[in-house]
Amino acid sequence: MAALTVRALGLEFRNPVVLASGPAGFGLELAAAFDLSRIGALTTKTVTLEPRRGNPQPRLVDAPCGVLNSIGLQNPGCDAFEVDLLPQIRAFPTRRIVSIAGRSPEEVAALASRLAGEQGVDVLEVNLSCPNVHGETVADNPETVRAFVRGARSASTRPILAKLPGEGKYLDLVEAALSAGADGVALINALRGMRIHTETGLPLLDRQVGGLCGPAIFPIALHRVFEARKAFPETVIVGTGGVSDLRGALEMLFAGADLIGFGFAVMADPTRVFRLAQELDEWLTKRGIADVDQLRGASHRGGIHVR
Ligand code: SIN
To answer: Which of 133, 153, 161, 167 is the most buried (most CB within 10 A)?
Structure first.
């Protein structure tokens, strides 16, 4: 058996498989059907201070090799999260990353402060890149990123990940997040895209734009992770965006990800995601590689040498 443990953010993760924020919801349905101790961490659906109803239907539109989503951060709000959900999430036999978002740095600070004393919140992920809320959280410039991360940092001593977009000057956004006190970044969120109804000529989504996720964005996500690792050799990176199988997971590790976030793949086939740590173990063992750490960032060091 190979060693799969990942040490990152001052914590130990059983293996690098992370359920990304969104498709896993708050993990309750998955916890009933799967053994959560087979993954390294679960990221919750994004929580906001107030409950959000989300965007009008349709919220999911087909796209080649993926899906466009327009959920709009639907969630029950922080009160209900703390009272109804967190007691169950706390009992999950895996690390818990709680995703938060706000309309302002002050709102993010308030959320971080509310969750600061809660058991069962291992990491805070500040969602700065949801493409589905008007004029709010999409961090298109470094100053916004800096302000929001500072808000969270000022209110919590928990490890903080900044969930960033893979668009625009994304390396400047990574730099802004880290200089404002983030302990790492999750790269990338869904990419903005659209589809149009051929009978009406009108956009299929109410907000016109949605977030493209799934295998369609994998090569883009991989490139962003590769570039971020090159520019920030020491930071923690959760590589996410269209990873759907062992090959994608290996590529993310080679590019420099510490942890690998699975989003769309959880919707498509959760069974496969829950098998991944075992598949990774078998892959390493077959090649005589003792520790998954040996793969991390290998593309930057001349590749791996297997027997
Ligand atoms: C959504 O709730 O609209 C998706 C969340 C995200 O992409 O950050």
So the answer is: 161
The pLDDT tens digits of the residues spanning 69-86 come to 999 999 999 999 999 999
Q: What percent of the chain has pLDDT over 70?
A: 98
Confirm whether pTM is higher than 0.90: yes
- Is 201 part of a structural domain of the chain? yes
**β-strand 236-240 against 184-187: which pairing, if any?**
parallel
Q: Are strands 66-69 and 210-213 parallel, antiparallel or unpaired?
A: antiparallel
Cβ–ligand 1 distance for 166 under 6 Å, the answer no
Length of the chain: 307
- pLDDT bucket at 136, cuts 50 / 70 / 90: low
If one counts the domains in the chain, the total is 1
Establish if 1 belongs to a structural domain.
Answer: no
Residue nearest to atom 6 of ligand 1 (CA): 130
Q: Is residue 145 domain-resident?
A: yes
Residue nearest to atom 5 of ligand 1 (CA): 130
Cβ distance 261 to 234 under 8 Å? Answer: no
**Amino acid at residue number 45:** K
Q: Which domain holds residue 178?
A: 6-300
Q: What ligand 1 atom has the least distance to the C-alpha of 69?
A: 3
305 in any annotated domain: no
> Using CA atoms in the order 126, 222, 281, 9, what is the torsion angle rounded to 10 degrees?
-30
Active site residues: 130
SS3 state at 126: strand
The pLDDT, as a whole number, for residue 137 is: 56
Helix/strand/coil percent split, the chain, to 5: 35, 20, 45
Supply the CATH number for residue 199's domain: 3.20.20.70
